[in-house]
Specification:
- This protein is of the alpha+beta class.
- It has one domain: Beta Barrel (Porin), CATH 2.40.160.
- Strands 3, 4, 5, 6, 7, 8, 9, 10, 11, 12, 13, 14 and 15 form a 13-stranded antiparallel β-sheet that branches.
- Strand 13 and strand 14 form a beta hairpin.
- It is globular.
């Protein structure tokens, strides 16, 4: 069992990171066949970032170690079950001098829950430019998402508050707090600092897998902001439909990163969202795009 803080039985940051790295690591069952563990503390539907990261780690296990992942495109097909492990089958589509491409199907009970295409590249020098990181307050001056939930806890179900404030391996601090309970209509732009809560023991591939895991957080909700709803609003249905991620530079997932998101369009029950992830030193290290279901049924 991982070490815990015996004063309140809450897991330490080190234990949380040990658990996350163990969750995202995959076991080889056979050639190009891998198993991702179930989240022991999970309930209900598997978090999409977990499936993405486990599929990505499965693809990486079939690629030469001198190649780093630079892009992935995934479709969610079925909700995953937290009570079951995830089986990932890898197809080796191409291995060239500079690039390798892989396809991954993540399955439970023999049915696909996600498919992914991903590409790896041998690092090289080239032309360089990037978007500028916006000037925002520093994370030390902001409060965590868990603290914001606690401030509204009197009006929320106790089980929901307990679930949303339990210790998590990724900490997030919004530049402009957004209320789940009383969402106000606002422009579809968010700026959120995020990082792993403790040091990452793994290599650069693990750092990139953790970034992929975290990139599914707070992205879809950007498209809800102009409409004054959140994913806990009455009769609201929300789910990620697809997810794309491009990695531009080395990642330090245990250092603060700024996630800047916007949503240029929503319609037909779907919201489209884009994101840029900056290292604290201003480097643009990743870009994201996601379309998701944002449907509010009539009462």
């Amino acid at each position: 069992m991982p070490a815990t803080d015996t004063s309140d039985a809450r897991p330490t940051p080190a234990a949380l990171m040990e658990g996350l790295e163990r969750l995202l690591s995959v076991e080889e069952l056979d050639t190009d066949l891998y198993r991702g563990l179930r989240n022991p503390g999970g309930q209900g539907r598997v978090f999409g970032g977990q499936v993405i990261a486990q599929a990505l780690m499965s693809a990486a296990a079939s690629v030469e170690p001198d190649r780093v992942v630079h892009s992935m495109h995934a479709y969610f097909m079925r909700p995953g079950d937290e009570d079951l492990p995830i089986i990932c089958r890898v197809e080796r589509d191409f291995d060239g001098r500079s690039f390798s491409t892989r396809r991954v199907v993540a399955m439970q009970k023999g049915k696909p829950i996600l498919n992914m295409a991903t590409s790896f590249q041998v690092p090289e020098e080239g032309f360089s430019h990037q978007a500028e990181m916006p000037e925002v307050p520093q994370p030390e001056d902001l409060v965590s998402d868990a603290e914001l939930i606690k401030r509204e806890s009197a009006a929320l179900p106790e089980a929901f508050v307990k679930a949303m404030t339990r210790p998590r391996p990724i900490e997030m601090r919004a530049v402009k707090p957004w209320s789940l309970l009383h969402p106000q209509k606002s422009e579809p732009v968010r700026q959120i600092w995020m990082r792993a809560v403790g040091p990452v023991a793994g290599d650069q591939m693990m750092h990139r897998a953790i970034l992929a895991y975290a990139s599914d957080m707070a992205l879809l909700s950007t498209s809800m902001q102009p409409h004054g709803v959140s994913w806990i609003s009455p009769n609201m249905q929300s789910a990620s439909l697809d997810h794309a991620l491009w990695m531009h530079d080395d990642v330090k997932a245990d250092e603060w990163m700024l996630y800047v998101t916007d949503s240029p369009w929503a319609g037909a029950g779907r919201g489209f969202n884009r994101g840029q992830i900056f290292a604290r030193d201003g480097r643009l290290i990743a870009s994201t795009a996601q379309e998701g279901l944002i449907r509010q049924r009539r009462s």
